[in-house]
Design goal:
Elements lengths: L4 H26 L4 E7 L8 H12 L12 H9 L4 E8 L4 E8 L2 E6 L3 E5 L4 E2 L11 E4 L3 H15 L2 H6 E8 L2 E6 L5 E5 L4 H18 L5 E5 L7 E4 L1
Parallel strand pairs: 1-3, 4-7, 7-8, 10-11
Antiparallel strand pairs: 2-3, 4-5, 5-6, 8-9, 9-10, 11-12
Length: about 240
């Protein structure tokens, strides 16, 4: 019987290639983590530092550098990072050259609550602890702090942050009671009685029209209360 040497050579070649892939794969998996990289994405990454992330990983996962890749659970590492109350989300992956990279999105405060307990209100309307690293320049929230009133305040802050004029000038929101909110402005002595959160666009458009005219007439300092509570009008109380 004639031996087909080409067929045998082909089988041997396949075996060799498979062996090389298996060997290189095992070698790659057993190779330890060479570097650890922490990257913050987005803007205003002021509330969490890279050293804090590394410390968090060591406390909850142990020393990661030189740990074989095959022993790493990337999902667990992500969840460990996300346990920090300043973290909105985390993505962890390994590069080919053995660098463990963590991409972290920090939470962003939009208001600071000054009540029996002090905390931020974040961009999703959730409670966020104060940071030892940075104090955010956001409107101060005072008064009758309740779950319902904070929901309304979040609606007001969302509107304010979408408006360039309001975002630059509103420095405080005072809760008289649920459905009755006051705004404090940066450069003016008067307070703005907003009332409830209904028809915010109409109320603020009326206010900006009043503000533009009063600023032009140089009469802003004559008022101590500007009320937007009444239907489609601005009612002012003079000093």
């Amino acid at each position: 019987m004639k031996i087909n040497w080409n067929y045998i050579k082909f089988i041997c070649l396949i075996i060799c290639i498979t062996g090389l892939y298996a060997f290189s794969g095992h070698r790659s998996d057993s190779r330890g983590v060479q570097e650890i990289s922490v990257k913050f994405i987005g803007e205003n990454n002021l509330y969490l530092t890279k050293s804090m992330v590394n410390k968090l990983l060591i406390q909850n996962y142990g020393i990661i550098k030189n740990v074989p890749k095959e022993k790493l659970d990337l999902d667990t590492i992500e969840k460990v990072i996300e346990t920090n109350e300043m973290v909105k989300s985390a993505q962890v992956y390994l590069t080919i050259d053995g660098e463990l990279t963590s991409k972290i999105l920090q939470r962003q405060p939009i208001g600071r609550v000054e009540g029996k307990t002090k905390f931020y209100l974040d961009e999703e309307g959730k409670n966020m602890p104060l940071s030892r690293n940075h104090s955010a320049r956001v409107p101060i929230i005072t008064g009758n702090i309740t779950g319902k009133s904070l929901e309304d305040v979040y609606v007001i802050l969302e509107y304010i942050n979408k408006d360039d004029f309001l975002r630059k000038n509103v420095i405080g929101i005072h809760i008289e009671h649920e459905d009755n909110y006051q705004l404090k402005f940066r450069m003016e002595n008067f307070v703005v009685n907003l009332g409830d959160v209904d028809k915010l666009e109409q109320k603020f458009n009326n206010f900006k029209a009043f503000y533009t005219k009063a600023a032009k007439d140089k009469t802003l300092e004559n008022y101590n209360i500007v009320s937007l509570e009444f239907n489609n009008q601005v009612v002012c109380t003079k000093i």
